[in-house]
Amino acid sequence: MISHMRVPPGRPGRIILLNGTSSSGKTSIAEExxxxxxxxxxxxSADAVNGMRAKAKTLELDPAQLAGVLDRTRAGFHxxxxxxxxxxxxxxxxxxxxxxxxxxxxxxxxxxxxxxxxGVRCSAGELERxxxxxxxxxxxxxxxxxxxxxxxxxxxxxxxxxSSTPRECATLIKDFLARNERPTAFGRLRATLKSQVR
Length: 198
Fold this sequence. Notes:
Strands 2-3-1-4-5 form a 5-stranded parallel beta sheet, sandwiched between helices. By secondary structure, the chain is α/β, with parallel strands linked by helices. It is 51% helix and 14% strand. It has one domain: Rossmann fold, CATH 3.40.50. It starts with 14 loop residues before the first strand and ends with a helix.
């Protein structure tokens, strides 16, 4: 007999959404948050989802096909985060909202969840230094992403990894959670966008 598993009763999980350019330190902050937050959280990364895709087949795509695959991957990531939270899991998600549709999609898909929107900033000079050190990033890419990634300008909490360590940034986010302040960034962004449509 096949048993039917149901979503456990109770609240959906809380989502801490880290937004920043590549090389800004999102993954390092997420890893620190997993060490210091209770109850246990899951780290969900857009990079990890990208890594699940068949690499050889992706290289065969023309630019238009690749753009479609990337859009579907990013939209799928947002929905995967929502699905894990729906089952009651607390999530630390890191992403790079490099296109305006991605923020709009998150605002829609995560409308029924508690989302703490955390901005991860870093100076252009330090981003370029990290890109050179990593060797797997196009030089100047992260600095070029800065404007679009933070164009909306609204966060619940922000940190700057130019001089702060990942643990210090994670502690700043934990301190925000400890104050039990209601996160308002997503609500304010929805209200702003709604007023612009009128």
